[in-house]
Design brief:
This protein is of the alpha/beta class. It is built from twelve helices and twelve strands. The strands form three sheets. It has a seven-stranded mixed beta sheet, with helices on both faces. The longest helix is centred in the middle third of the chain and has 36 residues, at 238-273.
Length: 384
């Protein structure tokens, strides 16, 4: 039985073309890119070619791309670096449904006692209202952070409107774009800081980048040899950067066709899964990211559902993120008002460019029986 992978929001398989682009940089081109000799300069050229490629694909300048180890580092550099670069502004706004890379970085700022951090509430589908952002901004607001698309429920945020608002008020705007590349039409006009991670769009793990608009003040967090124009010291991951550039190009080139196909999968998933009694959709029914569907099932635990599906060869993930002994539900589901009884029974299904229609049909044929079997042994009954 072939296994089915429906957890592409967590990570994606390395694309064949990306792997082929990276291979020469493991053994053939191995010089340190800061070295002056030809070995090093070949590696330096690969980095700069990758930077130029990503910048062209995103419609920005090559000097505005800073390579990092991934989006977590990029988000931290954006939030901490921007806050520390503006000592007279002490107010930060982040949406309540951000990834922990953003929330925990902002919480660290608050823990120092030097910054006030507030969380922007969202509506029932997880969307931020620009008017709410406007009402919460202050004269000393240094940064607003709202993600381009949510990694758990797929809600797309109005980043263009929020970016314009920030520009009016003199605040910086940061967006976590991890789930957005290749999945939605992106414009970085008005965006000051944009974080991405290659492994979310069929690139390598351990490499990402931060777009920093020219003139945006950012204090480096990693100090050393002054790599990446002093913003991120440390010898660059040459093969990873080459792979990241190839993955960005692939994602953007294929975007129209892939999005159309994934939207078709999502429409079928939502339509069929909601036929199961005691089920709700979390997030937007229309207009969300094409590859993410999040459901809650009354009367069962999400972890049990993920484990049972895995026994059938189907990989998914739980939206409840119950990693603590207290079985705390996902902060995203809490923020959108999902009842705790339903939040604990959540399932995220995330498709990718390699997902097939046959895999979707197999998932849909297996899921109802798995849900029914778990409910049969649950002390909680649907409707209670």
């Amino acid at each position: 039985m072939d296994r089915i992978y429906l957890d592409n929001s967590a990570t994606t398989p390395l694309a064949d073309s990306v792997r082929a682009a990276m291979e020469p940089y493991y053994q053939e081109v191995y010089g340190n890119p800061t070295s002056l000799h030809s070995f090093g300069q070949r590696a330096r050229k690969a980095i700069e070619d990758g930077r130029e490629s990503i910048a062209a694909d995103l419609g920005v300048s090559r000097e505005e791309i800073v390579f990092t180890s991934g989006a977590t580092e990029a988000d931290n550099l954006a939030i901490l670096g921007a806050a520390m670069a503006a000592p007279k502004r002490k107010h930060v706004l982040v949406s309540a449904v951000e990834h922990h890379a953003v929330l925990h970085a902002a919480d660290w700022l608050a823990s120092t006692g030097d910054w006030m951090v507030e969380r922007i509430p969202v509506d029932r589908v997880g969307r931020v209202d620009p008017d709410t952002v406007r009402s919460m901004m202050r004269d000393d607001t240094v940064l607003v952070s709202v993600m381009a698309g949510n990694n758990e429920i797929g809600t797309v945020q109005p980043i263009e409107a929020i970016a314009a608002l920030c520009r009016e008020r003199g605040a910086l705007f940061h967006t976590d774009g991890v789930q957005a590349i290749g999945k939605r039409d992106l414009s970085l006009d008005g965006v000051d800081l944009f974080a991405a991670s290659a492994h979310k769009f069929n690139g390598p793990k351990g490499t990402g980048f931060l777009f920093i608009r020219k003139g945006t003040p950012v204090v480096p967090l990693v100090h050393g040899g002054g790599h990446e124009r002093g913003l991120r010291s440390g010898t660059e991951n040459v093969s990873g950067i080459v792979g990241t550039a190839a993955a960005v190009r692939l994602a953007i080139t294929e975007r129209t066709d892939v999005v159309e196909r994934l939207l078709g999968y999502r429409e079928r998933l939502v339509r069929e899964v909601l036929k199961i009694p005691g089920t709700r959709l979390n997030g937007q029914r229309e207009g969300g990211l094409p590859h993410i569907s999040n459901f809650s099932f009354q009367g069962i635990e999400g972890e049990s559902l993920v484990m049972r599906l895995d026994e059938h060869g189907i990989a998914t993930s739980t939206g409840s993120a119950c990693s603590s002994p207290d079985l705390e539900p996902s902060h995203v589901l809490v923020a959108i008002g999902v009842p705790l009884s339903m939040a604990h029974g959540s399932l995220r299904v995330s498709t990718g460019r390699q997902t097939t229609e046959e895999e979707i049909e197999r998932f849909l044929s297996v899921l109802p029986n798995v849900v029914a079997n778990l409910r049969a042994i649950s002390p909680f009954k649907v409707g209670e």
